Fold:
Amino acid sequence: MSELLIRTLHEHAAALERREYSSYELTAAMLRHIEENDTAIGAYLTVTASAALNSAKESDRRRAVGQTCGILDGIPFAVKDNLCTKGIPTTCGSRMLDGYRPPYDATVIERLSRAGAVLLGKLNMDEFGMGSSTEFSAYHITRNPHDPQRIPGGSSGGSAAAVAASEAVFTLGSDTGGSVRQPAAFCGVVGMKPTYGTVSRYGLVAFASSLDQVGPLCRTVWDNAAVLSCLASKDPKDATSLSHPCPEFTSQIGASVKGLRLGLPKEFFDETLSSEVRQAIEGAIALYERMGVCMVPVSIPSAKSALAAYYILSAAEASSNLARFDGIRYGHRTQEYDSLEELYRRTRSEGFGKEVKRRILLGTFALSHGFYDDYYGKALTTRAKLRRELDALWTVCDALLCPTAPTLPRRFADRSDDPTATYYGDRYTVLASLGGNPALSLPSGTHNGLPVGLQLVGKAFSEAMLYRLGNALEQELNGKGDTP
Amino acid sequence: MKPSFDLDRLAELARLELTAEERHAYLRDMEALVAFADTLGGESEPIDNTSQFHFCSELRADIPAPCTPRHELLQSSATHTEQFFTVPKTVAQEGSHE
Structure:
């Protein structure tokens, strides 16, 4: 692989500024690499080569006349296929939206476009974001660039694999219960789920609206912070986006971490944590201690119920959000029907895959008469308790440190038919999702060539400090992302 | 003891048709998932439904703005006329038993 392709965003931006190469040359090289390499990885669902080259030419033209828009100008990127892109297929990894071309761009796409970034295409994902392996895409699987026999994680598996395989400089994913962080961990890249409301959800096809957030995946912590700085803003088109002032997220990077306190939740270091992951995380803890970071044992009693609460709440919201897919206004429509009801039922039964149907049924169950209080109501109560417990923690520590996932990425052949066995893999990530807190996953070492991800969870709007902590570890590990 | 769920009723509410094979598989999955969901402890407490958004947000001003052109929206539909989405008849015609 060309050395050019494994450079970081920071390095590309500096090189473009020096006119070492043009955005057109970089984009063309990346498109060639995608063409040669992606049949083996399967990160992309759609490649927009012609539009990308045109955007790159525009960027070069701006640069030639001194009108560059900033650090992302001319940088090739790609996005998960649940972000609406005007006139470009947006399938959500589902047959339900096969061929759908949205009439508008998501706000994050608009912002990156205004910043001059070059869209390479759309990335594979578990259908509607429901899954942790990208095996639930209706189109094809995505392979882990570190070991093609293993999963890349999910649901933003295409987004993580594309960065790890140098098929994009950065990507966007969406994170509902860990869908940016877990694939970032499995593919050895840096993934951020920002504080709920930091990034607009307008144009993100909804899975669970109270949990969904868009987040960047990059080679390095600095790159991730730079992309998030471009994305974060109040958006009048998303009532849940916040007007909280967002700092330049790279601002604290490089500052000393001495004296910061990291909480170690005892519930996340029990016997269910695999020895390979434990070893890497303990290595990272030792490095932090050498940097003068204080480790504080903490407890989050509601963490044991968090996973069940997450699956009930997200399924309930999904069952409501996905009711819009009825074959009338967009997407798949069944060919044979005699009545409106039959049109709805057949369209949905043909269009949705197995996992999506399973979650819709679970969500319908949790919201139905006779079960609402016992399931949906209790899940809301658990979420509220968890929030209170997390809020109390910020008086004794600055952030939490824990693994991103309890195991290494599994082989495709080791897939379990038991849905709950798969769901247990999300037990470290759903905490920040339910709390609305920011959480950063970054590489913390490898085991037999497979990356291990570490997660830093902070209080609301503490992204800059998480990046500072993440960068400190990255520097100690001398990493700029693992290149398979 | 909690009442058990009725998968056929759930499928009806969710507007899904299940084949016999799917029905068998989802019955098994749902039993496992409901047992998993039962790990939720404690009692349901009254919760402010907006508490999930625990940071203050503000709604935009209610000012009319241009919307997406009709023809662009209609293009996303599998079947449509020049002006409308098309759906099967839902009101019986005079003399018809449908």
Remarks:
- Chain B touches chain A through 56 residues (CB under 8 Å).
- The two ends of chain B are 43 Å apart (CA to CA).
- Helices of chain B lie at 7-13, 20-37, 70-74.
